[in-house]
Design brief:
By secondary structure, this protein is of the alpha+beta class. It folds into two domains: 122 residues, Alpha-Beta Barrel (N-terminal domain of MutM-like DNA repair proteins); 120 residues, Helicase, Ruva Protein, domain 3, CATH 1.10.8. The protein has six helices and ten strands, in the order H-E-H-E-E-E-E-E-E-E-H-H-H-H-E-E. A four-stranded antiparallel sheet has the order 1-6-7-5, with helices on one face. Helix 1 crosses helix 6 and helix 5 packs across helix 6. The chain is elongated, with a radius of gyration of 20 Å.
Length: 271
């Protein structure tokens, strides 16, 4: 599942490649991934141009002409792939967006993907995105901001996965972020020392930027079909159940944390 680094790579490539292109044909194979009927969707988006592509949390936003936005959510994973001409696109997809210059891109969702066309004046009422918080890559995501949201009795992992607090982080990167900070995922936020919060902030930014520089996870594709460079061996404890902790050599465990699982070192991350 694509998270902040992968979505940042994808959205930047889309912004660079698609800006000023005009939508022509839109081929919808699976109508249920749309927020409106396929006929209305195709009619409304045709002729609009791409002004800017950016991300908000785990959503990709296309700012379009005529005061519209196209919103794309990859769900549990997707291949979103660019093609140069109508002879080159992948044959399997739920949606295909074709531009008037004969280029385009396809969306092949693995599970639960969404494509929504919304007027700009309706964005503030769009329930899935209206309350998404800023991401660790935003300039306003400062240490002071992080300190302010680190309050209450909730478990630290739950807080960091809460998209209303921190946009874009999912269950992929959080294991190593917490391990580097020597914090158990079920630790109550209000039990953390100020120095632990500061250290957690630094490790979060460092971990996500490292992955961004690697162009994301190795099993995720970018806009041109290239896999990222963050391979499994670069994880510290994540997805390494039964292996040795890189710091103390205790056995890494997989534990249940609410609706998700977590990989931890029981020695380095004591509850």
């Amino acid at each position: 599942m694509a998270e902040l680094p992968e979505l940042m790579v994808l959205s930047k490539q889309m912004n660079d490649k698609l800006k000023s292109k005009e939508f022509g044909l839109v081929d919808v194979v699976q109508e249920k991934c749309l927020n409106i009927g396929a006929d209305d969707f195709q009619r409304q988006i045709r002729g609009k141009t791409v002004k800017k592509v950016y991300i908000k949390g785990k959503w990709i936003f296309f700012e379009l002409s005529d005061d519209y936005h196209l919103l794309l959510n990859l769900g549990m994973g997707a291949d979103v792939l660019y093609y140069k001409s109508s002879e080159d696109f992948m044959e399997e997809y739920q949606c295909r967006f074709h531009f008037t210059d004969d280029s385009g891109f396809t969306c092949k969702f693995w599970w639960f993907g969404h494509v929504e066309l919304i007027r700009d004046n309706e964005l503030g009422k769009h329930k899935p995105t209206k309350n998404i918080a800023i991401s660790p890559f935003d300039s306003d995501f400062t240490l002071d901001y992080f300190r302010k949201i680190c309050k209450g009795r909730s478990q630290i992992k739950n807080l960091m996965l809460n998209q209303k607090k921190i946009g874009g982080i999912g269950n992929g990167y959080i294991h190593d972020i917490l391990f580097k900070s020597k914090i158990h995922p079920q630790k109550p936020v209000d039990s953390l020392e100020p120095s632990q919060i500061d250290n957690l902030f630094e490790n979060m930014i460092e971990n996500l930027k490292f992955s961004l520089n690697k162009k994301g996870l190795a099993y995720e594709k970018d806009f041109y079909g290239e896999n990222g460079g963050f391979t499994k061996d670069l994880f510290l404890v994540a997805y390494k159940e039964g292996e040795k902790c890189p710091d103390c050599f205790k056995t890494i465990e997989k534990i249940k944390t609410g609706s998700t699982s977590s990989y931890i070192c029981p020695q380095c991350q004591k509850l």
